[in-house]
Specification:
Length: about 140
């Protein structure tokens, strides 16, 4: 599975950032290609299951997500399945009023006859998207 990883320092406590990220309905506010989150259901582990709609290269995909690891203010991981399978993990490391947030996305796109060039283009798009997600998160929480 290809992997994208990026990090950012945010001038906000981990509790505030985790509280924001742990609510799936907030994600479309910071994730440019995440079009919609719906059918959120609270799970016993404190996370959520949900349905998502994602837009890649002008095409909408729908699938399901479920929080697999929830360690408040430390780690939040969700497994997503559909035409795009992924494991999205946010980790939070506090230093005073600053928090280092790392976003790791392991993904697989189920597209017939996907070529090496297409894979490289999708990976480059995902790298840019991860940087945008974290920058949007930083801007939103530092306001």
């Amino acid at each position: 599975m290809p992997r994208v990883e990026n990090e950012v320092i945010i001038n906000a406590p981990a509790e505030q950032i985790y509280g924001y990220i742990s609510q799936p309905g907030n994600l479309p506010q910071i994730w440019p290609s995440l079009y919609e989150i719906k059918d959120e259901k609270l799970l016993a582990n404190g996370g959520y299951s949900f349905r998502w709609t994602y837009k890649m290269a002008g095409v909408h995909f729908t699938g399901n997500g479920e929080c697999t690891e929830c360690v408040p203010n430390s780690v939040l991981s969700s497994k997503n399945s559909g035409p795009i399978d992924s494991m999205v993990t946010f980790t939070f490391r506090s230093k005073g009023m600053q928090t280092k947030v790392t976003l790791t996305i392991d993904y697989r796109v189920h597209l017939p006859l996907i070529g090496q060039l297409t894979e490289a283009v999708i990976h480059k798009m995902n790298e840019k998207e991860a940087a945008l997600i974290l920058d949007n998160l930083r801007i939103r929480l530092e306001m």
